[in-house]
Design a protein that fits this description.
It is a single chain. The protein is mainly alpha-helical. It has a single domain, classed as Orthogonal Bundle (Helix Hairpins), CATH 1.10.287. Helices cover 83% and strands 0% of the residues. GO terms for molecular function: ATP binding; ATP-dependent diacylglycerol kinase activity; metal ion binding. InterPro entries: DAGK, DAGK_sf, UDPK.
């Protein structure tokens, strides 16, 4: 047995399997986290409002980045909570603190996303009035 790590050869089947694992992860997040449904509702609303207001390509990019930041932070928070629950099934004050900090990261990204949406949408709405 060699002690050096041999890079894995590219395989389409393994890439497809990786995508399946990722989709399963997103599905698990939606099944286990109620806040993920809030993010999904907000995502749909933002996309619909952006389409109705005909935002430009640059504005779409900022909206997509904001949406992505919220979803990524929620996914990482969910994964972190699962790991904490395995590592410390019983209550531990440091685990609570770490979960709170991870949840705070989601809150910060959501606040940032709302600010971005307001910066983009308010001028479009004002023009309609």
């Amino acid at each position: 047995m060699s002690l050096t790590h041999q890079p894995e050869t590219f395989s389409v089947a393994k890439r497809v399997q990786s995508i399946r694992h990722a989709v399963r992860g997103v599905t698990e997040m939606l099944k286990s986290e109620h806040n993920a449904w809030v993010h999904l509702f907000a995502t749909v609303c933002v996309v619909l409002v952006a389409a109705v207001l005909s935002v430009n390509a640059t504005e779409w990019c900022f909206l997509i980045l904001a949406i992505m930041a919220v979803w990524v932070s929620e996914a990482l928070n969910t994964a972190f909570e699962f790991l904490c629950d395995v590592a410390s099934p019983d209550f531990h004050p440091l685990v609570k603190k770490s979960k709170d900090v991870a949840a705070g990261a989601v809150l910060l990204s959501a606040i940032g996303a709302v600010i971005i949406a307001l910066i983009i949408f308010v001028p479009h709405i004002v023009l309609l009035l």
